[in-house]
Every structure is written in C-alpha cells, then in structure tokens.
Amino acid sequence: MKKMGKLTAAFLAMSMCASFTACGGSSGGSTAAPATTDAAPAAASSDASAGGKTVGIAMPTKSLERWNRDGEYLKNEFEAAGYKVELKYSDNDTNQQNNDIQGMIADKVDLLLIAAIDGSTLSQTLNEAKSANIPVIAYDRLIMDTDAVSYYVSFDNYTVGKLQGEFVEKQLDLANTDKTYNIEFTAGDPADNNAGYFFNGAFDTLKPYIDSGKLVIPSGKSTFEQVATPSWSTDTALENMQNTLASYYSDGTILDVALCSNDSTALGVAQAITSDYNGGNAPIVTGQDGDIANLRNIVDGIQTMTVYKNVSDEAGVTLEVSKAILSGKTPDKSFADGLSVQCSYDTESYNNNVKTVPSFLLVPYVITKDSLQTLVDTGLYKWDADNKYLESTAATT
Ligand code: BGC
Predict the structure, then answer these.
(1) Could you tell me which residues come within 8 angstroms of residue 170 by beta carbon, excluding any fewer than 6 positions away?
(2) How many C-beta neighbours within 10 Å does residue 207 have?
(3) Can you name the CATH fold of 158-288?
(4) Which protein residues touch ligand 1 with a CB less than 6 Å away?
(5) How many whole angstroms from 310 Cα to the centroid of ligand 1?
(6) Are residues 151 and 138 in contact, defined by beta-carbon separation less than 8 angstroms?
(7) % of the chain with per-residue pLDDT over 90
(8) Does the pLDDT of residue 47 top 80, yes or no?
C-alpha cells in the first residue's frame, strides 16, 4: 500500500478518493488512468506550517461545473491540513475577480490560489499582492503579464487536445482509411490561456489529415479565433453549432466529428446535433472534464469521450506546493518527483509575457462509455441507483 500525505488520507476518509499515484515525471497523457505504484511520496503532508495561516482561493464562476468541484476540493483539502480558507467565486466577471482578490489581500491572506477568468486582467491587483509579500499560485489557468505569480499548477493542456485528436484519428482509422470525413471544431474562451493549447493540441494532431483531404471542414472554420467560445458558454456553443448546421449541413452533408475542447461546449454542441442535425449518424463528439451531464450523454451515445483531469490530484498537488512555499521552500523538479501523484515539473512551456512560470503539470486521460468505471474507482463518482449513469460523490456537484 502506498503511503499518502495526511491531507490526502483525511480527504480519502471524507470522499473515498484514492487517486494520488506515484510520480513518473512524464508529461504525456494516456488513454488509461495513470497506474498506481507503491512508491512513497517524499513530500509528506506533515504540516506545522499551517498554524493560523489563511489561503485565499479565487475561482472563476459557479456556472461551470468544474469550478464548483475544484473550489470545494481545494477548500476541503486546505482546511483538513489546518489552514483557514477564504473562497470566492467571481461570476465570470473580471472586475469582480479583481475586487475579490483585493479583498483577500486586504484580509492579509498568506497565499493566493487563482483560477483566472481572464488571465491578462490581474496584473495591477497582483502587484498589490507582490508588495504585500503574498505568493501567488496560478491554478489550472496561467496568469499572464505579471511577475507576481510564483508557480502554475495545471494539467498538460496541449496533451488534453492531443488526446482528443488522437481519439478521432483512431476511431476513424485515419492513418489507413481511403474515406473522407467531415469535422467541425468548437474551442474555448479566448481569455483563458488554456483554450489555445487545447485547440492546438487537437488541431496539430489532425492537421496532416486535413491537409491530405481525409478530413474536411465544410464550414471552413479552421482557426482558433473562428471557433472560440467566449466564457466557455454552453448556450453560445449551441447557437454556433446550430448556425453551422443550418449553413453547411442542411443539404444532407454528413457531420462525422464535432471536436469540442471541453464538456460545457460539448453539451451545447450535442444539443444542437440532437435538435438540428438530420444526417442519421451519431457524430463523434469530444469533451473534457467529466461533468455529470456529459457523462450522461456518453452513456446515451450523444457524446463519445471526455478527457478527464482528476480534481483531487490537482488540488492535492496545489496543497503540497502551497505548503512548501509557506514553509519557505522552493519547490522544484525533485519536489515534483517526490510527490505521490504523477506530474512533471516544466520550466519551459508556460511563458506569461513577463516570465516563464515554473509549472507542475498533471496527466490527463481519456474516458469513454467503456471506461466509466475508472471514474468510479477514483472515489469521486458513483453509479446511480439503476447502475446506468454516474453521479458525483461530492456535496455540491
Ligand atoms: C479548464 C477546463 C474547463 C474550462 C472551462 C479551462 O481553463 O482547464 O477544464 O473545461 O476552463 O471551465
């Protein structure tokens, strides 16, 4: 049995999550959940540093399922480790997020964890954090245009898109087929630095087939800007897909793939396909996050896959990095190698226009209808009473 940190153990007891795995230092994603090994975590969770310290957590919005999940996990984990937590959701409003963070600075929090709404709107506020000597961790989304951010904890964002592209490549056997297929892309919020990585990971993987004509984009929308979805809005994704279907598919053209960067957009796209597409086939629809409604669609055959990013791993690594910072350490590669979760330490990929932010990157993996049990095995999901759909084991999602 592998050893685990106090916090993880505490959280395990609470939510039965058992997802920390030994670190291999790899940054590649996979189509299966990372395997558990027996290696012991070097970064143990003993936490003398917590006493009386407060962590300010700024989440973007409650309107997208994943941030409720992340906010709750982070709060639970930090509190279980002995920290006080100030948690704010800013309603996808950048002014409100600035105000919320300024409030936390005024409250003299000891550390800020921020999932930015718009990565480039926080520079001024973070100058104030820097002046007050409050370290900042960019959570999941990189914070741009500031030197006040110490670390970035996220998943390998490019790999998320790559896994989606590779899934399509495999499903359609693009390397070997002589057939041609039609594809449309739906990407994320241009204000979110992650969105371009997701799109590029998928597009780069499929580009050789687009170039050779095996994959055709009937709408011609092939750039991130043309397919971006502000605020990752389900309604906007729905509307955009309805327009695309009306303009390019109403003559009976077949849609084979709707490559969506995440689950909130996939939800809208799948809805548009259900209501406005008459091709008779079920297009491949990709996603990311493992949101409950999307897992339902996967069971019902309306969505085909989602790329899963384990929230308890991301929250757990964030906690370990935070603890290290708060006890005066400088977490680096050997720290990452010692963590009880698979992640890489990257000092090259994430430049925020002012500095290259040292990053701890976790490993995403693909979930399909056949591998839903893998999610149950994390302890974060459970089967419903009919053993048909998945539900969350967490209180708020
Ligand atoms: C996250 C995704 C999420 C999206 C919308 C991104 O920054 O990495 O997991 O689907 O925001 O909430």
Answers:
(1) none
(2) 14
(3) Rossmann fold (3.40.50)
(4) 64, 66, 140-141, 188, 192, 194, 232, 262, 264, 288-289, 309
(5) 13
(6) yes
(7) 85
(8) no
CATH class as words, domain 9-155+310-363: alpha beta
Residue 76 contacts residue 40 (beta carbons within 8 Å): no
Going by C-beta distance under 8 Å and a sequence separation of 6 or more, which residues neighbour residue 9?
none
pLDDT band at 142 (very low <50, low <70, confident <90, very high): very high
Ligand 1 center to residue 44 CA distance, Å? 29
- CA quadruple 255, 260, 263, 267: dihedral positive or negative? negative
pLDDT, average across residues 282-299: 98
Mutate to test the pocket of ligand 1, among 198, 289, 306 (most ligand atoms within 8 A of CB): 289
Q: Give the tokens for residue 229.
A: 């979805």
Amino acid residing at 58: A
Average pLDDT over residues 371-395: 95
* pLDDT tens-digit readout, 209-227: 999 999 999 999 999 999 9
| Residue 97 pLDDT exceeds 50 | yes
How far apart are the CA of 175 and the centre of ligand 1, in A? 30
Ligand 1: which residue has its CA nearest to atom 3?
262
Ligand 1 atom, smallest distance to 193 CA: 7
How confident is the prediction for the chain on average, in pLDDT?
A: 90
Q: Which single residue is written with the structure tokens 């490019």? A: 158
Cα 140 to averaged position of ligand 1 atoms, centre (Å): 8
> Is the model's pLDDT at 111 over the cut of 80?
yes
Domain ranges in the chain are: 9-155+310-363, 158-288
Residue 79 in tokens: 């509190």
Measured from the CA of 263, which atom of ligand 1 is nearest? 10
Ligand 1 atom 6: residue of nearest CA: 194
Do 9-155+310-363 and 158-288 come out as alike in CATH topology? yes
Q: Tell me if residue 181 falls in helix, strand or coil.
A: strand
pTM of the model: 0.90
Residue of 280, 216, 204, 206 whose CA lies nearest to 248:
216
* pLDDT at residue number 49: 67
Strands 343-346 and 359-362: antiparallel
| Residue 8 vs residue 351, higher pLDDT | 351
Residue 17 confidence (pLDDT) above 80: no
